[in-house]
Specification:
Layout: H1 10-22, H2 27-42, H3 48-59, H4 65-108, H5 114-146, H6 150-165, H7 170-187, H8 189-192, H9 208-212, H10 220-245, H11 250-262, H12 269-283, H13 289-301, H14 309-320, H15 327-353, H16 357-361, H17 364-393, E1 397-403, E2 409-412, H18 414-421, E3 436-442, H19 449-464, H20 469-485
Antiparallel strand pairs: 1-2, 1-3
Helix pairs in contact: 1-4, 2-4, 3-4, 4-5, 4-14, 4-15, 5-13, 5-17, 5-19, 5-20, 6-17, 7-17, 10-11, 10-15, 11-14, 11-15, 12-17, 13-14, 14-15, 19-20
């Protein structure tokens, strides 16, 4: 065929995936655009139809869709080894960068590194307002995609009330939205099928990867074998850590928690960050709210999926609870186990489910469920934007909770949360949800006026001047350094 491309060698594909990984800045939209430009337009290894076909499947899965898309296309090109190489290279640069930044971050907090501390503080001074503005932009971007009617708006509003005021568990919100969309799609398909499936037009010309896509057929035996291998890879390290350090060690707790988070990250990293933030800060005491924003800033400015922020959370949690290990070694181990349990499931979903894509492709019920889940994600990300914004603009923020059963009200200040982080966590922690209403009460005298200026500048850059993420981050970091040096 005149328009077809020859099948690339494994080495040729390896260097192309290295190039994609090096360019994987700017969040999933930019990362997917890079893959489209390189693989569809430049190399002509995959057709437009097949590319969008694969993207639709990855959007239905928990986890970072851009990384899973790389795994899927790599699998189509060169089987399991191709998927492993593509997916690993996609996260490797970000993993190395965030590990180095995490180590510098904790070193800067020690008294022996006063100069480094000032450098890190100056950089992160401007980074936090930029991150808050970027999250606000994500609310609008996702909202334009899915809030097409009053039903979708209502789902988003209920999700926001549920997670911001009632602090309902994130998995419950996603499950309720999915069930609502599934049922609603059967009764009122025109209302609930908001996210249309791509690639429904005539098939593109055959490319190298399209021919390879038909070589693996789904069978029960293959599915059982893939499940056995990847479930062992997923959970065996946790078993070894529990045997070595005990089931109550922070490494096992992080492995279990982030394994749970790995199956709940529908709608992208921003949606699950609220869940991770609530649990890591308030339940486990692994890090402070401001440190959560610092970690997100690291993930925003390094290549790879935004969900790599969990690496920083895992590092800080283990660094503060090292057990018998040196703190830095504990932090590295915590970061490694966190990244392992976060991304092994991504490979598992692709290697297990890719042969069934054609069956999933035309399922309108799944499209309805995805529409409702994405609408709920808008409310969840709005919660994240407000949470970030309040902690960026005010140094002292009180959380007020009123128990709906007893009427009792409890107030927790930012200083109380910081104090809890310096105290040993109790050996047995139970987490039973009590119906309550939660809201924030900032101390107005603690307003950070420098951050007010930087946040306003970031919002202007994004919404008025249509600047991208890297430009916004660069301007805010530069301005933050100047304001920090000026003592503001």
């Amino acid at each position: 065929m005149a328009n077809s491309a020859s099948h690339p060698s494994f080495l040729e594909a390896f260097w192309v995936w290295c190039r994609v990984a090096a360019l994987s800045f700017g969040g999933p939209t930019a990362q997917i655009a890079v893959m489209h430009r390189v693989l569809v337009e430049e190399k002509k290894w995959i057709s437009e139809h097949r590319f969008l076909h694969a993207l639709n499947y990855c959007m239905l899965l928990p986890g970072p869709e851009a990384q899973q898309l790389a795994v899927y296309i790599g699998w189509l090109l060169h089987g399991t080894r191709g998927g492993l190489v593509a997916g690993t290279l996609f996260i490797l640069p970000g993993f190395v960068a965030i590990m180095g930044l995490s180590i510098l971050y904790v070193l800067a907090q020690s008294q022996e590194a006063a100069v480094l501390s000032h450098v890190v503080n100056a950089v992160f001074y401007g980074l936090k307002p930029a991150v808050a503005a970027i999250v606000a932009e994500a609310v609008i971007r996702i909202g334009k995609k899915v809030l097409k009617n009053r039903v979708m708006v209502a789902i988003a509003a209920l999700a926001f009330v549920g997670i911001f005021f009632l602090e309902l568990p994130f998995p419950l919100i996603i499950l309720a939205a999915g069930v609502t969309g599934f049922i609603g799609g059967k009764l009122w398909p025109g209302t609930f099928q908001v996210i249309k499936q791509h690639g429904e037009g005539p098939a593109d010309e055959q490319r190298a990867v399209d021919a390879a896509a038909e070589k693996v057929r789904p069978t029960l035996g293959r599915s059982l074998l893939v499940s056995a291998i990847w479930l062992t890879l997923w959970f065996a390290p946790l078993g070894l850590l529990a045997w070595w350090l005990g089931p109550d060690s922070v490494y096992v707790k992080e492995g279990i928690f982030f394994s749970q988070a790995a199956v709940l990250t529908f709608g992208g990293a921003y949606s699950v960050l609220s869940y991770i933030g609530q649990q890591a800060v308030h339940r486990f005491g692994w890090l402070k709210p401001a440190e959560m924003m610092d970690g997100l800033g690291m993930a925003e400015t390094t290549p790879g999926p935004l969900i790599m922020v969990v690496q920083f959370v895992g590092f800080m949690g283990a660094y503060r609870n090292p057990g018998d290990l040196p703190p830095l070694a504990a932090g590295v181990l915590g970061a490694v186990i966190t990244v392992w349990v976060t991304f092994v499931p991504c490979f598992f979903w692709i290697f297990l489910g890719a042969p069934y894509i054609e069956r999933l492709r035309g399922n309108l019920n799944l499209s309805s469920a995805l529409s409702s889940i994405t609408a709920a994600v808008v409310g969840v990300v709005l919660n994240l934007a407000i949470w970030f914004g309040i902690h960026v603009l005010f140094a002292d923020v009180a959380e007020v909770r009123t128990n709906l059963l007893t009427g009792e009200t409890a107030v927790t200040s930012s200083s109380d949360i910081a104090k809890n982080l310096t105290e040993p966590a109790p050996k047995s922690q139970s987490f039973v949800y009590q119906p309550h209403v939660r809201w924030f009460w900032p101390a107005w005298p603690s307003t950070r006026w420098g951050n007010v200026v930087l946040l306003a500048a970031a919002l202007l850059l994004i919404f008025r001047f249509k600047q991208g993420m890297l430009v916004t981050l660069g301007v805010c970091v530069t301005g933050g350094v100047l304001l920090y040096l000026a003592g503001l």
